[in-house]
C-alpha cells in the first residue's frame, strides 16, 4: 500500500475514534480556561509560558472562519492535530524502517497510548503541540535517511514553531544542537538552520518585551513556582517520582514497552549519530517530566512518548521479530486493556475509595479511561454550586467568568449546563 494512502487511512480512522470519544461537556482542569480565551475571540499578542500563543490563535481563527463556537473550534483543532500526529508517526517509522507492518503498529500503539489519547479527547494544547514536535522528529530522521538537505532547515523551523505552542519544548534544544553538530559539514544548511531556530526563539522574547512584559515571561509564570518546587522535594519523593514515571510508561505502552527498549538498543548499534540526537532530547524531557512538581506531570512526557513510539516501530522492524507480524493486530486490543484495568480497580478497596473521592468529576472513569464522552462538565458543576473534596477554585472561577460571557450572548443556564 502506498505510504501516503496508509497515512491518510490512519488519519481518517483516528479522527473518527477521537471524535466519537471526545468530551460531551467541557471537562475539568485547564479546559475551561482555553475555551474562555477562545470564546472572547481576542487574538493573543504575547507569547507567555501559559497562554500558548499559536494554539489559542489557531482556535480563534478556526472559530471565525467556520462560524462555530469556541468549544467546537477547539474540538476540531485538538482532534485533527491528534489524528495527524498519528499519521506523522507512521511516516517517520516508515522512513527509517521501510517496514509497513511495524510502522502501522507503532502508529496505532501511540494513537492508543493513554496520555495522547486522553489529550485528544479534551480541550488542551498537547495534541497540537505533539504535531509540531513529531514533524521536528520526522525532519531530523529524514535528514539521516534520505540525505535531503531541506530537512535540516525544516527541523529547526518545526522546533522553533513548537516553542510558540509550549515553552517546554526548549528541552528538545539539546537534540537540535547535537543534530546540527552532526551535519556541521553542510555548513550553509547548518548555519541557516541555526539562524532559523534562533530567530524564532528570540522572537518570543522580543514580542513580549515589546508588549511591556518582563524577559522571563516567555518561560516563567507568576501563577506558581513549579520549577523551583521541583528542587525542594525530599529524597524519597524523587525515588517515588521515578517509579511513578515507569508506571506511566507501562500504562501508555503496555507489552510494547519491550519493543521500545529493543529499538533503543538496536539504534545504538546501527546508527550512533541518530541515537545520540534522540537520546539528548529524550533524557531532558523524561528527566524534567519525572520530577516536575505539578499534579498532572504525565502530560509533559508526550515528546518523550513520541520518541519511544518511534523506537517501538524501529524495534519491531528487526528481522528477529518478523514472525510477530501476524500478531500485530494485538495492538487493537489496547482499549480493552484500559477497560479491564478499570474494572479490576473498581473491585479493590483503594479503587473504590478513589472513585468516590473523585466522583465530582467522574472518578476512575476520568483517570483510567482515555475517552471522555458522557463526562461530567465543569459548567454544570459550577451552576449547580456543587462542592469538591479538594481545592478547585481556580477552575470554578474561570468557569463563572465563562458562564457570564455566555449569558451576555443570550444563553440560558439550562443551555450552558449542557455545554
From TrEMBL:
It is found in: Cell membrane. It is a multi-pass membrane protein. Pfam families: TMEM260-like. Keywords: Cell membrane, Glycosyltransferase, Membrane, Transferase, Transmembrane, Transmembrane helix. The chain crosses the membrane at residues 7-29, 49-66, 73-93, 99-118, 125-144, 150-183, 190-209, 248-268, 275-294, 300-317, 329-348. InterPro entries: LipidA_mod_glycosyltrf_83, TMEM260-like. PANTHER family: MANNOSYLTRANSFERASE YKCB-RELATED, MEMBRANE PROTEIN. This is DUF2723 domain-containing protein. It comes from Chryseobacterium sediminis.
Amino acid at each position: 500500500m502506498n505510504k501516503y494512502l496508509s497515512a491518510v487511512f490512519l488519519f481518517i480512522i483516528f479522527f473518527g475514534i477521537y471524535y466519537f470519544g471526545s468530551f460531551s461537556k467541557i471537562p475539568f482542569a485547564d479546559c475551561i480556561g482555553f475555551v474562555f480565551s477562545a470564546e472572547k475571540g481576542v487574538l493573543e499578542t504575547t507569547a507567555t509560558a501559559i497562554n500558548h500563543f499559536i494554539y489559542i490563535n489557531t482556535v480563534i481563527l478556526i472559530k471565525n472562519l467556520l462560524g462555530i463556537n469556541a468549544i467546537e473550534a477547539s474540538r476540531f483543532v485538538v482532534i485533527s492535530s491528534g489524528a495527524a500526529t498519528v499519521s506523522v508517526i507512521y511516516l517517520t517509522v516508515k522512513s527509517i524502517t521501510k517496514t509497513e507492518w511495524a510502522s502501522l503498529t507503532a502508529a496505532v500503539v501511540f494513537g492508543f497510548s493513554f496520555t495522547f489519547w486522553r489529550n485528544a479527547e479534551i480541550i488542551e494544547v498537547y495534541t497540537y503541540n505533539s504535531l509540531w514536535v513529531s514533524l521536528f522528529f520526522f525532519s531530523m530522521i529524514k535528514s539521516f535517511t534520505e540525505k535531503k538537505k531541506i530537512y535540516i532547515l525544516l527541523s529547526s523551523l518545526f522546533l522553533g514553531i513548537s516553542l510558540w505552542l509550549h515553552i517546554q519544548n526548549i528541552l528538545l534544544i539539546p537534540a537540535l544542537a547535537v543534530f546540527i553538530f552532526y551535519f556541521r559539514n553542510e555548513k550553509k544548511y547548518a548555519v541557516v538552520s541555526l539562524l532559523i531556530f534562533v530567530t524564532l526563539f528570540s522572537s518570543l522574547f522580543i514580542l513580549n518585551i515589546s508588549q511591556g512584559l518582563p524577559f522571563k515571561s516567555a518561560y516563567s509564570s507568576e501563577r506558581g513556582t513549579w520549577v523551583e518546587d521541583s528542587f525542594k522535594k525530599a529524597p524519597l519523593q524523587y525515588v517515588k517520582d521515578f517509579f511513578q514515571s515507569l508506571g506511566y510508561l507501562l500504562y501508555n505502552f503496555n507489552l510494547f514497552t519491550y519493543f521500545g527498549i529493543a529499538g533503543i538498543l538496536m539504534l545504538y548499534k546501527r546508527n550512533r549519530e541518530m541515537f545520540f540526537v534522540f537520546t539528548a532530547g529524550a533524557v531532558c524531557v523524561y528527566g524534567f517530566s519525572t520530577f516536575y512538581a505539578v499534579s498532572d506531570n504525565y502530560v509533559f512526557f508526550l515528546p518523550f512518548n513520541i520518541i519511544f513510539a518511534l523506537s517501538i516501530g524501529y524495534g519491531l522492524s528487526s528481522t528477529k521479530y518478523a514472525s510477530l507480524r501476524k500478531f500485530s493486530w494485538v495492538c487493537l486490543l489496547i482499549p480493552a486493556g484500559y477497560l479491564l484495568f478499570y474494572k479490576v480497580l473498581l473491585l479493590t478497596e483503594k479503587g473504590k475509595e478513589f472513585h468516590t473521592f473523585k466522583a465530582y468529576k467522574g472518578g476512575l472513569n476520568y483517570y483510567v479511561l482515555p475517552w471522555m464522552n458522557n463526562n461530567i462538565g465543569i459548567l454544570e458543576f459550577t451552576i449547580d454550586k456543587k462542592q469538591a473534596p479538594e481545592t478547585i477554585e481556580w477552575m470554578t472561577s474561570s468557569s463563572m467568568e465563562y458562564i457570564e460571557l455566555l449569558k451576555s450572548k443570550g444563553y440560558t443556564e439550562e443551555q450552558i449546563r449542557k455545554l
